[in-house]
């Protein structure tokens, strides 16, 4: 089909198809999806639209798509990266609807723009409360002592640390600085709580409170990309996850160093 389009000079449908594929890939990469899943979704959309041998190159900063048959290729830049599995699931559902002929190409593009701009998310206060619950429960799990006395402080400090990270990230858009600052706040509050006698173990509180900041999903995706053969994206995501872990560890280490 692409050869017939190229022969008669009608590339409008191909350009729209590429735009849909690239938009779907962009949303998925920005939302934390694995690269092989991104390429698989893009290939299904392209194949259903008539491009059977789409050439796709995905990284964490740009996606390029073209064909062997013609000199038509397009790319799209990745502006930011976060974790939003709701968007990934909705893009996959939209692509399946398109391949099942429940959506045409124009409606698919409209659906993707709607997902990108208006996908539902949890309000900040629920995210903060969830961070506190994660901190408190994982503090009990990782401490090994089942010291329930520190559970309220782990909940409160974990919630405040995640809140600091959330608002600083929205303000300056530099993830490592927000994580470093949040780690400083968590360490200082843990020391303060133990000093006032409202906490027993500074280590247990810190272990629980930093859990919402730990880049577990990016590190997992980095390993999955490496195992799937996406060496460039796997290494870049791995480095990013290690930098995040280093920022968190440095913030906690500075607090402990100055205390001692």
From TrEMBL:
<feature type="transmembrane region" description="Helical">
    <location>
        <begin position="180"/>
        <end position="199"/>
    </location>
</feature>
<feature type="domain" description="Threonine/serine exporter-like N-terminal">
    <location>
        <begin position="21"/>
        <end position="258"/>
    </location>
</feature>
<keyword id="KW-0472">Membrane</keyword>
<dbReference type="GO" id="GO:0005886">
    <property type="term" value="C:plasma membrane"/>
</dbReference>
<protein>
    <recommendedName>
        <fullName>Threonine/serine exporter-like N-terminal domain-containing protein</fullName>
    </recommendedName>
</protein>
<dbReference type="GO" id="GO:0015744">
    <property type="term" value="P:succinate transport"/>
</dbReference>
<dbReference type="Pfam" id="PF06738">
    <property type="entry name" value="ThrE"/>
</dbReference>
<comment type="similarity">
    <text>Belongs to the ThrE exporter (TC 2.A.79) family.</text>
</comment>
<keyword id="KW-1133">Transmembrane helix</keyword>
<dbReference type="InterPro" id="IPR050539">
    <property type="entry name" value="ThrE_Dicarb/AminoAcid_Exp"/>
</dbReference>
<feature type="transmembrane region" description="Helical">
    <location>
        <begin position="239"/>
        <end position="259"/>
    </location>
</feature>
<dbReference type="GO" id="GO:0022857">
    <property type="term" value="F:transmembrane transporter activity"/>
</dbReference>
<keyword id="KW-0812">Transmembrane</keyword>
<feature type="transmembrane region" description="Helical">
    <location>
        <begin position="125"/>
        <end position="142"/>
    </location>
</feature>
<dbReference type="InterPro" id="IPR010619">
    <property type="entry name" value="ThrE-like_N"/>
</dbReference>
<feature type="transmembrane region" description="Helical">
    <location>
        <begin position="148"/>
        <end position="168"/>
    </location>
</feature>
<keyword id="KW-1003">Cell membrane</keyword>
